[in-house]
Amino acid sequence: MKTFLLFDIDGTLLFSNSVDSQCFAESYQEVFGQPFPSIDWRQYPHVTDHVIFRTVFTRHFQRMATGEERQAFEDHYVSRLQAERKKQPEAFQEVPGARDCWRQLEQDDRFVLGIATGGWRAPAQVKLQHIGIHPAPPYAAYADGMEQRDHILQAAIDLACAAHEISHVVYIGDAIWDVTTTKQMNLPLIGLRRQGDEEVLLREGVKVVLSNYQDLTAFHQAVDTVLLEHQIRLQE
């Protein structure tokens, strides 16, 4: 029996949110000639690329985008991400220790690793490749065609469970919507925040918040802590 460690990408393995958001908004304006209303993702029904794009497009054009229109936008967005990554690589920073932690956990028979992100597959692969993590992990789910984050997490969990005996699932994420989703799904969460702002998640009831992956022992302890807390909560 293995523990499935399911990671978000943006803000969890890679710090590039501000550049990503700007690329998304500018790509939309360049492809469709309309102003992008807001990069405050909390204003959208679900924080996924699929829903954000659909919400803005239907607001502007009073119809759903065609598959060709959506693909044209995504292609432009990915091109901008790749260009910005080369132009300002410092803006796409690996969360300290993320790559080495991932590679060591991959070698540990107790764990299966996966990705569940509100982003589309293609831009997610650009980001993973940038920090030296395989861009197409086998147990991964993205926002392509999926609206809700809980559906994305469940899709990744289903892939892992089809291939392994999974006894526990732990999600690692950085945002308020990660807290909401894991509570909804009754999954333990390890929070990840930049140094100094752990209280953003602590205020939401997250018990363990890390700022990096440089201490592998601390990460293992975090997994044990959230699993124990989860088991205790289930028994109450």
Features:
236 residues, alpha/beta, Rossmann fold, 2 domains, 6-stranded parallel sheet, two-stranded antiparallel sheet, 9 helices, 50% helix, globular
Your description of this structure?
Helices cover 50% and strands 14% of the residues. It contains 9 helices and 8 strands. The protein has helices at residues 17-32, 49-61, 67-87, 98-106, 121-130, 149-163, 176-185, 199-202, 216-235; strands at residues 2-7, 14-15, 93-94, 111-116, 140-141, 166-173, 189-192, 209-210. A 6-stranded parallel β-sheet has the order 5-4-1-6-7-8, with helices on both faces. Strands 2-3 form a two-stranded antiparallel ribbon. Helix 1 (17-32) crosses helix 3 and helix 3 runs parallel beside helix 5. The radius of gyration is 18 Å and the shape is globular. The two termini are 24 Å apart.
The number of helical elements comes to: 9
CATH class of the largest domain: Alpha Beta
Mean pLDDT over the residues = 95
How would a textbook summarize the main sheet?
6 strands, parallel
Number of strands: 8
The tally of structural domains comes to 2
Radius of gyration, in angstroms, nearest whole number: 18 Å
Strand arrangement within the widest β-sheet reads 5-4-1-6-7-8
Structural class estimated from helices and strands: alpha/beta
Amount of helix: 40-55%
Shape category: globular
- Give the end-to-end Cα distance, rounded to a whole number of Å: 24 Å
Name the beta content range.
5-15%
The succession of helices and strands, N to C, reads EEHHHEHEHEHEHEHEH
Under CATH, the topology of the largest domain is which?
A: Rossmann fold
CATH level-4 homologous superfamily of the largest domain: HAD superfamily/HAD-like
Q: Catalogue the unreliable spans.
A: none
CATH architecture of the largest domain: 3-Layer(aba) Sandwich
